[in-house]
Amino acid sequence: MAMLGETAAIPHAAAPRTPGAVCYRVAGLTKTYRTGRRSARTEVVANDAVDLEIGRGEIFGLLGPNGAGKSTLVRQLTGLLRPDAGSVELLGHDLVRRPEAASRLVAYLGQDSGALDELTVALAIETTARLRAVEPAAARAAREAVVAELGLGDLAERPLKKLSGGQRRLACVATALVGDRPVLVLDEPTTGMDPVARRAVWAAIDRRRAEYGTTVLLVTHNVIEAETVLDRVAVLDEGRVIACDTPGGLKATVGDEVRLDLVWRSDPPMTEPAVAILARDAVRTGRRWTTRMDPGTARELLAAVTSGPAFDVLDDFTLSTPSLEDVYLALGGRHEGLVKG
Ligand SMILES: Nc1ncnc2c1ncn2[C@@H]1O[C@H](COP(=O)(O)OP(=O)(O)OP(=O)(O)O)[C@@H](O)[C@H]1O
């Protein structure tokens, strides 16, 4: 039985943070999209008076369901989208008045890779380094280093457009990492990647913060993995920040309940008292039953279903402490979870 699925273990280095030094200061940030003509005009408030402060050298996560306003927020924090109201200060620069300041300070990885698709992986990385004013010899050295760090050696001479989705994403992460920008803004960096690639990305992010004090703003749906590298997390819902704290601080808000997941091979015996209790309380998704309860009860029920006749039809089980996904649901999120379906 696989207890942790394919989740990759992530090293976590100590942060050489500058206490009190601010990287981003965001206040009252508001953005409304207006589409359609006058008679059929629709408005979507994508960001609604967002306040945030991100410290230098912090790895800061933005979590929230699809459409919560995460990409809209990071595009304003990288000077690519102008807010309707509010302020964004990046390392002392006013990004609303001078958005171009971001282009010297931030390496931004958006959700698309379009512009680089014609280049080989090696050329895309080296060209990006040169565009960031790295000298030719240093750009080649940086290319070699990041190719080795992310395990891209076999793909280096292939054009991005001929790679798989996960391989292309990994190459794009490599382009974000060259040039030693003090701020990395990464919008779902590990989308489509296999566990080995994801692990390499989380390690590379953590290493930059540890060695260079890089500030990292991370949008991700991969909450279980991401929470091991994140210092603090803001949870966004319908354009608003509904919580902001350390992963531990957020998880403390859901108390000490644990989550018990059971996956049945076929119908479990309802005559078993433990199965009957679980059947009453569980949220069912196909053959999976999920329940939350105090640790003592969870241990008793798990012991019962893993020893009696229920065990014959039990395919898999997981007992876990609250995750950031549980925090989101406890905060009143309207959606099934943070993980993209
Ligand atoms: N260019 C646009 N024009 C109109 N509406 C938009 C535009 N871009 C985003 N939206 C809307 O704004 C809201 C926030 O979108 P945004 O892409 O910021 O969410 P997100 O949290 O990044 O979502 P996802 O997790 O799916 O990437 C959504 O309702 C979306 O439909």
UniProtKB/TrEMBL annotation:
Pfam families listed in its UniProt record: ABC_tran (PF00005)
UniProt entry keywords in alphabetical sequence: Antibiotic resistance, ATP-binding, Nucleotide-binding, Transport
Membrane topology listed for this record: Peripheral membrane protein
Ranges where the ABC transporter domain occurs: 24-263
SUPFAM superfamilies attached to this UniProt entry: P-loop containing nucleoside triphosphate hydrolases
Matches recorded under SMART domains: AAA
Location within or outside the cell: Cell membrane
InterPro entries registered for this protein in UniProt: AAA+_ATPase, ABC_transporter-like_ATP-bd, ABC_transporter-like_CS, ABC_transporter_ATP-binding, P-loop_NTPase
One function term, GO molecular function aspect: ATP binding
PANTHER family: ABC TRANSPORTER ATP-BINDING PROTEIN, DOXORUBICIN RESISTANCE ATP-BINDING PROTEIN DRRA
Protein name: ABC transporter ATP-binding protein
The organism of origin for this protein: Yinghuangia aomiensis
